[in-house]
Amino acid sequence: MPFTRRHALGTLAALPLMPRLVRAQADFPTRPVRLLVGFAPGGLTDIAARALAERMGKILKGSVVVENRPGGQTIIATAAVARAEPDGYVLAFVGTNGMILNPLLYNDLPYRRSDFKQLGSMGKSPMLLIVHPALGVKNVQEFIALAKKKPGDITCAHAGRGVINHLALLHFQSKTGTQFQDVPYKGSGPALLDLMAGTVQSTFDFPTSALPNIHSGKLQVLAVTADQRLSSLPDVPTMKEAGVEGFELYTRMMISGPAAMPAAVAATLENAVREGARDPALVRQFAEQGVTVAFTSSTDLERVIAEESALWAGVIRANNVPKTDLKG
Predict the structure, then answer these.
(1) Cβ–Cβ < 8 Å for 161, 102
(2) pTM for the whole structure
């Protein structure tokens, strides 16, 4: 197509805007950055987001404000970021459910992974296999043996169908040839309360939620789904040590923005995530809660998302978990 006078006038008209756009990117941020979390206050994701937001604000010489938008398996918050103006002022602090599991579980998800620019990961947390002490098992192999002796009798609570600890239960069943009576709850908090009361007998949950009641003796932990033992639970074996191979499962703490963010803004935000995650006090704080704080770059995170998507797709396929519609 020939370059016409109209094209020339359009280009000239846009020139005055270019310095302003460059200056806006160079001055970023000039107002608070909003970090959307798909859970209510108080859980692992919210606590981690607030800790990182405080440090990111100092690095950016601005303000990073956490905004809780719970509901819809984190879909509400994640979709809001996908639709946001791609200027770097609305970000998502999203775990494995939002970025990896939901695209595998729903047909009509209002976002795609390609709608996002990954800005790095703050760290990751494994899960714990937890039982009520009255169940009378001392280790994972005794737990498996009891489940095989009483197929479908032992109850296992989880935070809702399709969330990561529900899929961890399904994965455990297929790995060990066991069958449990799964009991869904609206979040891990109520599930843990009923586990402590003895209403249910087992669960997969995160150290941040469960550690206080493990240390007090109200709950018993059998194994951790990490590739190495946790410093906060040095006597608890990994699943591999307990005899269950290939059971390293984590939730990732990822920071994402709209895909069309300017490269300079994305680089500024990724640097803030990187430097924030290097804070020794932050590393110590979360190590005590069973969380590994270690920055993963945006490039490496894309690879991790692809690998873990393949892992969870295999779990979903092996357990015949249907892909469902959000609407109707």
Answers:
(1) no
(2) 0.84
